[in-house]
Amino acid sequence: MSARVLYIRLPCNPIFPIGVVYLADYIHKQLPGIRQRIFDLGTVPPLDFRRALPQVIDEFRPTHLVFSWRDIQIYAPVGGRGGNPLQHAFEVYYARNPLVKLRGAIGGLRVMSAYYGELWRNLNLIRLGLHHAKRHHPEVTTIVGGGAVSVFYEQLGSQLPKGTIVSVGEGETLLHKVLTNQPISGERCYVAGVEKPRDRLIHEWPTPIEKTACNYDYIESIWPEFEYYLQGGDFYIGVQTKRGCPHNCCYCVYTVVEGKQVRIHPAQEVVAEMRQLYDRGVRNFWFTDAQFIPARKFIPDAIALLREILKAGMNDIHWAAYIRADNLTPELCELMVQTGMNYFEIGITSGSQELVRKMRMGYNLRTVLQNCRDLKAAGFNALVSVNYSFNVIDERTDTIAQTIAYHRELERIFGADNVEPAIFFIGLQPHTHLEEYALERGILRPDYNPMSLMPWTAKKLLWNPEPMGSVFGEVCLAAWRLNPNNFGRTVMDLLEERFGRAPLEEALSAPLEERPLVHR
């Protein structure tokens, strides 16, 4: 009996499902005789989930179910499940007005209800899919992977049907081995209800694969909902130019999910993939790498890619990415503008070089500023989103004033209207240095549940320690009250009113002495 693989993307925000697309493309190139189908629940109305999934399974009769679970995002900085979870939490923890506290508690209950509801819904969809698939093939194989599973694989294993293969990180070689009846013990996976995951499984390096241009003629033939993402031309369609991140940022899990070895996709293959989408009317691209230019040694690869885009004649596109702005050069800046970059995000986290060093970010903030000046000189006049994660490590009034100075300099370079501060508070995630720090100091217990949204756990996982936690709580509450539609800029204004602005040189200089980490 020939294998029939059904990929089911579990419900999430309407973001192009690049992971599932690349997985199906890889399997088709390795095993062209296998039939495949992509079913994206992100394009289905919620009330139709339980009707649509069995219908597709009954039509396709898969021998293998591959579920992709993208999001279990507990602490979002913007509106999400039942409202703004960060605002609800801060109202409960820091508001002085009892009515505001009550409002936050009610909002928090809505968020909690929606969060656990989504967990149960997705788990039930997996069970429902397996139940229906067994009607046609009693020995059906089930694999569950995706971003959410890679982070919470230890917790989800006990909730999935027995025999489910839990995939961590990239799934190409795992699925290939499953389909060719090869042993999978060497892959980053385990079988739920049968075995426990190996210790530090997520820290094992993924198996490198040779990436070629995705065959969108084939993808279109197995994915009826593909046109959903092309309608109106307003979606940014994902294209991956590399995998892996070499950095050690204290709160980030990318470096273990994707591995520290950066694997570059050939520029000609990336552009060939973009060209297929371009010919279908796509003009907006998002480079889905952990970082578009993760280190200076990869600058030549970025230059080669952008030159290939110019050579391909796609001169009316726009693209965006996460970018480490310390790795720009004047030549790269010119090419970025020429190829249509119209938005980018930089996650400097803090405008204090001292804190950037302590968080293991690897940034030189002075270099970032100079490179931003080069980008502006090259003609970049679009939006920059600057991610600030306040109060992660050793935040103090003087480091706040340094961040203000740094942010104002970015505004001076690009124009205040073009610099949007995105205010985050870290949601502590498993497998990070920050989790190790919290466990070592007794802030978290070894048996804590990182998926819990119970108040006694949530306050620890929403990382905002004293003595500065209450200060940021008050400032953020004031910003939501004064100007909720311009929250980030209002937070920066209020912090400057309260703590002033340090000399820029002070922000760019890190003292040699170490300060202890601030914790509760």
TrEMBL record:
Cofactors demanded by this protein: [4Fe-4S] cluster
Residues of the signal peptide: none
Superkingdom of source: Bacteria
Annotated keywords: Iron, Iron-sulfur, Metal-binding, S-adenosyl-L-methionine
InterPro entries: BchE-like (IPR051198), Elp3/MiaA/NifB-like_rSAM (IPR006638), rSAM (IPR007197), rSAM_horseshoe (IPR023404), rSAM_sf (IPR058240), Slr0320-like (IPR054650)
Single GO MF descriptor: catalytic activity
Domain Radical SAM core positions: 229-465
PANTHER family for the chain: ANAEROBIC MAGNESIUM-PROTOPORPHYRIN IX MONOMETHYL ESTER CYCLASE-RELATED, SLR0320 PROTEIN
Name of the molecule in the record: Tll1467 protein
